[in-house]
Amino acid sequence: MSMRTPQEAFADVRPVIECLDLLARPVADAVRGWSGPVPVRELLYVDTDPDRADTAVLVESYGAWLLDVSANCVVVAGKRGGVVTLAACVVLSTTRVDVNGAARRELGARKASFAAMDTAIGESGMEFGGITPIGLPADWPLLVDAAVADTPYVLLGSGSRRGKLIVPGKALAGLAGAQVVEGLGV
Question: Where is the YbaK/aminoacyl-tRNA synthetase-associated domain (predicted)?
Answer without folding.
Answer: 65-172
